[in-house]
Every structure is written in structure tokens, then in C-alpha cells.
Design brief:
The complex is a heterodimer of chains A (153) and B (473).
Chain A lengths: L11 E6 L12 E9 L3 E7 L12 E9 L5 E4 L1 H8 L9 H21 L4 E8 L4 E10 L4 E4 L2
Antiparallel strand pairs in A: 1-2, 2-6, 3-4, 4-5, 6-7, 7-8
Chain B lengths: L28 H13 L4 H10 L12 H4 L2 H15 L29 H12 L3 H9 L7 H10 L25 H19 L6 H28 L11 E2 L12 H30 L9 H12 L5 H10 L6 H12 L4 H11 L4 E2 L8 E2 L3 H11 L6 E2 H12 L1 E2 L8 H4 L9 H18 L3 E3 L5 E3 L7
Parallel strand pairs in B: 1-5
Antiparallel strand pairs in B: 2-3, 4-7, 6-7
The chains are: A alpha+beta (153), B mainly alpha (473).
């Protein structure tokens, strides 16, 4: 979701939120980091060839692979096309259709994890400059008790 | 060039408020939800201050809640304003003086008329049908309980100027903006678009606040666009089934589609026929109005048109009427008055441009102007919304049954349902060529897209079932 304007963490999956709704030529020039999930919380699971057959079903696995978040059961299908899109520079142009669909998939995947994996006090804002392809990250600590919004690292 | 200044004058048509205005390309999703919430809760003050903070470097950051380390450091101050813009102005529809913000908190409602009144009309419709929805919205947008940091930020910023001052309580029954008594379909349609909006919150209770607001904003805009396309016919004549209206056929492949593809051509033809139908309904409404006033024969011919127009359209002022009268011949018939008035209100291309422009903003119509004839099509996010508003959280529906549902609820045609014979229905479009194959291919295109997007599953017995992306199976 960060269009490679910002280096992502390898230890955890950052959960991005996008408030833009209107379709414009370019995607939103910013994203909100609303939560994180540790990499141990995920499994890569294969598809099951048989379901509703016996209990427990015979363990015959299929060729598809899914990234599954253990607690929320949020699922992201891992196929060659999606993986290559994620690896390459994400396009900020809406006209790049494959990226639009990937964005939707990722948003739904993140949204389900965020149901119980949101950050209570920290928020990150990525501001992208698509002309120079540079991203700037701003982090804030929000406290309702202390009634304060402060910068954080 | 005309100088009547009647372009987009919706009051000409009477009670229907879901009509295109003067600048149909202006209302964007965030404008419409802002108008919707303003109609529900009234005008607030904080939104204007937030707009100033985002756009005006001279506007001082309020401390507290914003810490002095931010406000007293030039770079931090600038970064905070940009961050705030990402959260509350992602669609860039808030300028220095005016605009609408992403309503992360109810206090961010602004006094922006850019929604052309659609927000208020949609609120009237929803509040008239679901009297408890105001309470639901109040709980969502004004609650001080915050589990997540993003919501906390909204709560803290909501208190920078004023306190909550809106009345909370159930809405009273308000007559919907189109006449539901005329035919069975209009009342059903009013209920279905309302459910689309209310379910965007009620069926997503586990989502974080901002995700619910994004879903609701999209649903309100979708419902508004559909209402603009369809409700004018309800005001014109009693309608009982979708088959009595021009078919709304959506191209189901990846947008915008190849213009030579028969399904794309069908979709373009469908767009044209809906525009034609709206045009003739609007002309009919004017025709009925102009036929009503009776002018005594002793009145001179030169004065008759003036009197007729004044009596038929009381909302027009003297200048408008004089300007219009100048375009008419002294012995103009009723029919030529109707034609002249209609072409002044909606000049050639105005309806097409408006429907396309509004639909394109959320991915229901396209392509962009200059890139081919307008057509109906689905961006993937719109497919998600359609599934969310027609399938229950624990439900799995066969693909054919789901196609029946979207036709029954919204009049949307894509492929062959169990009861919906799309091929039969699209014969009204009078398209030459292999239309059956086109519908068949469109049917399969959508099925494959839904599977790819995680909104359907295909089983070994050939059955495809539709379910929500976050469905509990």
C-alpha cells in the first residue's frame, strides 16, 4: 500500500487504511497506518481439495496457497500475479487495473485483521509524493485520557 | 447562446429532488455524505476550523489537544497539517473557504452546498423509512468511546471549538422525495436503497469506525446515483416492475472494456436508453404542467405564453419568464414551449454527462469523457458493496439467485438469473447482433470476477455461491 515510497517492516505486517472514496486519475496521496500484526500471527495454508466429505476430512491439499491471519481468519490468496504485483513498484495510477484490484483485496484483508488488531494509541501517516516517489512518515501518539496528540518515533 | 439561466433548474419539475443540477460533475461522495449528515444533525462549527487548519498555514494549531512540540516547530506543524489532510481530506474536496471533510467525527460536518442537495434528499428518504437510523448514526459519529487511535484523534479534534449541540432521537416519518404511492416499484426501490445505506453500518459492526464511514459514504453515493437515474420515471407514471423501465445492463468485465465487445456495446446502448427514458419522463412532467393552466381566449396571442408559463411554473421569476418568452414565437404551441423549456433546463448532452460523471466517481459508469461512449460497469469495490447489501453475513447464495436479487432490488442486469431472463429483457434495447452470446459471456465474466475477488466460491459440482468477503461460513 505504500507504493515503495517507504520501506516496509519484515517483522510485522503493517495494516493501512485509506479514506479516499472518489475515483481520480491518481490514488490517494497518503495512507494511514492504523495497526500492525506480527509475522508469527500468520500462516500460509494450502487449499483443501475435499470439504463436507468426512469429519475430519482426508488431508488432500490443493495447489492454491493462502495467507491466513490466525485470530481474525482473514484470508489473502497468494497467486503468482498478486505476488509479482506486490514485488514490483505499486502503481499510483488508477488506470492500472491490476493494481486497483490488488488494492481492493489488500484493503479487505487488512480491514478484517484491524477488527481486533488496531492500535489503541499510535497512528502513522504516510504522505506520498508521486512526482519524486518519496514518502514521508509521520507518527503520532494519541491519548484520550491525557487529551493530547503528540509526535512519536 | 441562451441567456435564460434555467440550466439545471430542478424546481421546474416539481416534487422530485433526485434530478441533475446545473453542475452535475461537482457533487462527489464526500459532499453527499456531508449533506446527508448535515440534514440529520445540523450544521457544526469544528469542520470549518479543521478546513482552515488543513489549508491555511496562518491558522494556529489548537494546543491542547495538539502538543506544543508540534505547533512550535515549523516542520512538525507542516507535517501535522499534511497528515490531517490525509485523514480528513483524502479526496481533496475541502478548500480554504469551503468544502466537505471525511466525517470521522460528527462535529466535522460543514456547511458546504456542493452536494447539490442530494445529501438532504437522501436523508429524507432514509429517515422516512428507517426511523431509528439517526440513533445509529449518533452512536457511530458522536460516541466518545474509542477503541482505536484513529477514532481517538477524531474525538480529540472534535472538541477544539464547540460542544455537541444536536438533538438526538428517532426521526419522524417524512414523505420520501419521490411519490411512493405511484406504482409498487417506487416504494420497493425506496426501501432497497435505504437498506443499502443502513446495512453498510449494521452488517459491519465489527469494523473500525473509519471503515464503516467509508462503506456508508460509498453506499450513500451509489444509492443517490441510482435514484437520480430511476426516480424521475416514478414521478412521471405508476410503475410496478423493472420490466416497464429501460433495462440497466452492466458490463461485467474489467472496466472500461473493449468498445467492440458486444457486452460493452449492450451496456452503452442501455446507458443511452436510460438517458432517453429520463428525458421523455422529464418532458412528460413539463407537458402535464403546461397543459394545466387555462388561458381565456380573449387574452391576446402575444400574452398567452407568458401567462401559461407563469401559472405552470410558479417558481420561475419574472426575468426567467421574460427570457424564455423571447425564445418562443408568439403563437407557440404547448409542445414547442415544452421543447424550448426542456432544452434550456437540460441542453443536449447534459443528462449523459451528468450520469456518467457521477457514476465514474465511484466506479459505476465510464469511461472518462473522450475515451468512448458512456456505459455502465463495475469497479471491484462496487461489486463488494452490491454483495454486502444483498447477502447476509452468514448467507451463501447461488450465483443465479444473487443475479435475481440485484435485479429485483435495483433493476441491475448482468447475466442469467433463475427467474431473470436478461436476454428477454434486453430485447427492449433493440440491439442487432448476437445478444444472447453477449449476455452469456457477461454472465461468466462476472462470475469469474467475483470468484477472483473473494466474493464467490466455485465448487466441484459446477455451483458458484456468492458470499460476503468477511462472511461467517
Amino acid at each position: 500500500m505504500n507504493y515503495k515510497t517507504y520501506s516496509a517492516s519484515l517483522a510485522r505486517l503493517q495494516l493501512w487504511v485509506d479514506h479516499s472514496i472518489e475515483r481520480r486519475t491518481e490514488r490517494a496521496h497518503g495512507q494511514i497506518l492504523a495497526g500492525e500484526a506480527e509475522s508469527q500471527e500468520f500462516n500460509i495454508k494450502p487449499s483443501q481439495v475435499l470439504i463436507n466429505f468426512q469429519n475430519p476430512p482426508p488431508d488432500i491439499i490443493g495447489t492454491n496457497r493462502f495467507l491466513v491471519h490466525k485470530t481474525s481468519n482473514s484470508i489473502f490468496k497468494l497467486d503468482a500475479e498478486k505476488l509479482s504485483l506486490i514485488k514490483m513498484l505499486r502503481s499510483f495510477r488508477r488506470a492500472d487495473r491490476r493494481h486497483s484490484d490488488l488494492e481492493w483485496d489488500l484493503t479487505r484483508f487488512f480491514e478484517m485483521i484491524l477488527r481486533n488488531q488496531y492500535s489503541e494509541y499510535d497512528i502513522g501517516i504516510l504522505i506520498c509524493d508521486f512526482n519524486t516517489m518519496v514518502g514521508k512518515m509521520a507518527n503520532y501518539k494519541i491519548s484520550l485520557d491525557a487529551q493530547s496528540i503528540e509526535e512519536s518515533q | 447562446m441562451s441567456n435564460t439561466n434555467l440550466k439545471g433548474r430542478r424546481d421546474i419539475f416539481g416534487e422530485s429532488s433526485f434530478l441533475l443540477g446545473r453542475n452535475p460533475e461537482r457533487p462527489s461522495p464526500v459532499h453527499v455524505i456531508n449533506g446527508f449528515l448535515r440534514a440529520a444533525f445540523g450544521r457544526k462549527e469544528v469542520g470549518q476550523k479543521i478546513i482552515a487548519i488543513i489549508n491555511d498555514r496562518d491558522e494556529v494549531l489548537p494546543t491542547p489537544p495538539i502538543s506544543k512540540s508540534i505547533s512550535e516547530n515549523y516542520k512538525s506543524d507542516e507535517l501535522f497539517r499534511k497528515s490531517l489532510s490525509v485523514i480528513l481530506n483524502p479526496d481533496r474536496r475541502a478548500w480554504k473557504e469551503i468544502g466537505s471533510l471525511f466525517p470521522l467525527h460528527g462535529e466535522f460536518i460543514t456547511n458546504d452546498p456542493s452536494d447539490d442537495g442530494y445529501g438532504r434528499s437522501m436523508w429524507k428518504l432514509v429517515a422516512g423509512i428507517d426511523t431509528n437510523f439517526k440513533n445509529v448514526l449518533d452512536g457511530l459519529l458522536f460516541s466518545d468511546n474509542s477503541p482505536d487511535a484513529l477514532t481517538s484523534m477524531g474525538i480529540l479534534l472534535s472538541g477544539i471549538n464547540t460542544s455537541n449541540n444536536h438533538e438526538v432521537g428517532s426521526s419522524t416519518k417524512i414523505p420520501p422525495p419521490w411519490q411512493v404511492s405511484r406504482g409498487k416499484l417506487s416504494a420497493k426501490f425506496a426501501n432497497n436503497v435505504t437498506t443499502m445505506i443502513t446495512s453498510s453500518i449494521s452488517s459491519n459492526i465489527h469494523r473500525i469506525r473509519s471503515a464503516k464511514i467509508v462503506a456508508m459514504t460509498t453506499a450513500i453515493y451509489f444509492a443517490t446515483w441510482l435514484s437520480i437515474l430511476r426516480s424521475v420515471c416514478f414521478s412521471d407514471r405508476p410503475i410496478n416492475t423493472w420490466a416497464e423501465l429501460a433495462p440497466m445492463f452492466f458490463y461485467a468485465g474489467l472496466p472500461p472494456g473493449n468498445p467492440q465487445d458486444p457486452a460493452v456495446r449492450l451496456s452503452s446502448r442501455s446507458f443511452e436508453s436510460i438517458v432517453d427514458e429520463c428525458r421523455s419522463s422529464l418532458i412528460n412532467i413539463i407537458r402535464k404542467k403546461i397543459a394545466k393552466p387555462r388561458v381565456p381566449t380573449k387574452i391576446p396571442k402575444t400574452q398567452r405564453n407568458l401567462i401559461k408559463i407563469t401559472k405552470a411554473f410558479p417558481s420561475l421569476n419574472k426575468k426567467d419568464i421574460d427570457n424564455l418568452n423571447q425564445l418562443l414565437k408568439p403563437d407557440a404551441t404547448n409542445e414547442s414551449i415544452v421543447e424550448t423549456l426542456f432544452s434550456e433546463v437540460y441542453p443536449i448532452g447534459h443528462l449523459e454527462k451528468g450520469f456518467r460523471s457521477m457514476g465514474r466517481k465511484i466506479g459505476l459508469a465510464g469511461p472518462e469523457r473522450g475515451f468512448g461512449s458512456p456505459r455502465f460497469m463495475f469497479e471491484t469495490s462496487m461489486l463488494g458493496l452490491l454483495v454486502d447489501s444483498t447477502v447476509g453475513i452468514t448467507e451463501q447464495v447461488s450465483y443465479a439467485e444473487w443475479l435475481d436479487r440485484i435485479y429485483e432490488k435495483f433493476g441491475i442486469l448482468v447475466g442469467f438469473g433463475k427467474q431473470t431472463d436478461t436476454h428477454e429483457l434486453i430485447t427492449a434495447l433493440k440491439m442487432p447482433g448476437p445478444t444472447y452470446t453477449a449476455v452469456e459471456e457477461n454472465h461468466d465474466l462476472l462470475r469469474r470476477r467475483l470468484i477472483r475477488s473473494g466474493l464467490a466460491s466455485e465448487y466441484s459440482d459446477g455451483e458458484t455461491e456468492i458470499h460476503r468477503h468477511d462472511g461467517e461460513k
